[in-house]
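User: I'll paste a sequence; please echo it back and then give the predicted structure.

Assistant: Echoing your sequence first, then the prediction.
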Amino acid sequence: MDAYRTATSGTAERTGQGRTRRVPGWSVPLLAAAAGVVVWGAGTALGVEAVVRGGTGDTVVGPVAVVVTSLLVGLVGWGVRSCLRRFGTPRAGRTAGERTWMVTCAVVLLVSLLGPLGAASASATVLLAALHLTVGAVVALGLRR
């Protein structure tokens, strides 16, 4: 039952004494949102304004957009990871679907990095790419096991 709970509710980490510490899956979207806001805040503190050019005009990316998008990405990722755990098979010391999860995350992250290419300036491109990489890394690694 304990292994099932770990597999369905979140990730597990080994501590120094051989005990397993669980990171609940529901916390990963929250952590991703917090990390995104920290990166956005650091960028704006350095004077970078996250502006994306679009067909209807310029859009300023603010903290609300960062939080909402990060939460949505985290929740969708949590759902995808749960499906991969259910239908995947454990192999060579990996949990069910772990390799598929990491490949899926890499592909989604690469596609998402096309978004920052529409930024209004080079510094905005760097900030938006850092946001994408940070949120993607938190979701991918947080839900990995």
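Residues 1-9 have pLDDT under 50 and may be disordered. Strands lie at 10-14, 20-24, 51-54, 57-60.
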